[in-house]
Amino acid sequence: MFIMLAIVALVLVLAILYVFSFFFPFFNEKYSEHYVGTYDSVIIVSDVHVGAQNSLNSTLGGILRKTHAEVLVIAGDLIDHGPALRSSKSLSHVIRAIEILSKDSRFKRIIYVPSHSSHDPLFPRNIILRIRRSPEILLVTSRGILLRSRNQSIHVTHGDYVCRNGALAFITNMAARQLFGISLFLEKLLKRVLGIPWSHWLVMGHTHIGGIDHEHHVANCGSWRRYWREPVKGLVKVDKGLVSFHAF
């Protein structure tokens, strides 16, 4: 009887560990980050979901055409249902989506950092690939990127490293805010998990809850897709080292 109970307990423990390692990749996956340069002005967006019927990418495109930033960073979930694409078609879909989003804009460089577990195509890990020359489009498939602006360091990632499932990430951040008054909980958790210095910024998406915390130096870009609720349409702007969040 004791042996049977021990086996059942072991199976339950292994099942719990599997669930945790699956839904929370930071438990067993190594985080990777590429440095992508120093810029005076950067716009960071995420969760655009080009191709979805309820995507507001045309609205975002109109906003981007009025900006004067050097660089656009797309922090994951650029397109919808990306993992279903064949690898031979992934780049063409990505380029087309970026063209739709950045049409008539003035960006000199566009950096695309796909998510690793949801809507983006599944590319080989840890590569930097220039997929177009003018404007330059860089595909960076590490978990995140590091960029600098004046004396400020900004770490950008989609956010699925801290919680794989977007709905669970949304619920977690909403619960933390409603029950404990903690905004941007997963952003703060991820910054701590990665050991990012307090003075550096962490910017992510994934939760679809946009906002910024200047005290803890974390921000979320929000979302440009309608679900059952109106999204927090936003973007993060970096201007000569100053980081700000803009809702629309």
Question: What is the strand and helix layout of this fold?
Answer:
Blueprint: H1 2-23, E1 33-38, E2 41-45, H2 57-64, E3 71-74, H3 87-102, E4 109-112, E5 128-132, E6 136-140, E7 144-149, E8 152-157, H4 166-180, H5 185-194, E9 201-204, E10 211-213, E11 218-220, E12 234-239, E13 242-247
Parallel strand pairs: 1-7, 2-3, 3-4, 4-6, 8-9, 9-11
Antiparallel strand pairs: 2-12, 5-6, 7-8, 10-11, 12-13
Q: Which features would summarize this protein structure in a list?
A:
single chain; 248 residues; alpha/beta; Purple Acid Phosphatase, chain A, domain 2; 2 domains; 7-stranded mixed β-sheet; 6-stranded mixed β-sheet; 13 strands
Number of helices: 5
Largest sheet: 7 strands, mixed
Question: Percent range for helical residues?
Answer: 25-40%
Mean pLDDT: 88
The first-to-last residue Cα distance is 62 Å
> What portion of the residues fall into strands of 2 or more residues?
25-35%
Number of DSSP strands? 13
Order of helices and strands: HEEHEHEEEEEHHEEEEE
Care to describe what's here?
By secondary structure, the protein is α/β, with parallel strands linked by helices. It has 2 domains: 30 residues; 215 residues, Metallo-dependent phosphatases (Purple Acid Phosphatase, chain A, domain 2, 4-Layer Sandwich), CATH 3.60.21.10. It is 29% helix and 25% strand. It has 5 helices and 13 strands. Strands 5-6-4-3-2-12-13 form a 7-stranded mixed β-sheet, covered by helices on one side. A 6-stranded mixed β-sheet has the order 1-7-8-9-11-10, covered by helices on one side. β5 and β6 form a beta hairpin. It is globular, with a radius of gyration of 19 Å.
